[in-house]
Design goal:
about 60 residues, about 85% helix, rod-shaped
Length: about 60
């Protein structure tokens, strides 16, 4: 969802002055933002120690 919003915003800003190159740059920025958001979400998920997650059992085994 973050990638979609960033791509749309960058498209509005970059396509009028730069045309197809602006669209490519907007897409690249959107993909990067989406990837960064997914990575940060994953890091947050892994670092949670109070709540149970799908990864909790395997992480507990790996830390011991």
């Amino acid at each position: 969802m973050i990638g979609l919003v960033v791509t749309a915003a960058m498209s509005v800003v970059l396509i009028p002055p730069y045309g197809p190159s602006g669209a490519a740059i907007a897409s690249a920025i959107g993909y990067g933002a989406g990837g960064l958001a997914a990575w940060l979400f994953f890091i947050d998920l892994v670092r949670r120690r109070d709540g149970e997650t799908a990864l909790s059992a395997s992480l507990t085994d790996a830390r011991e």
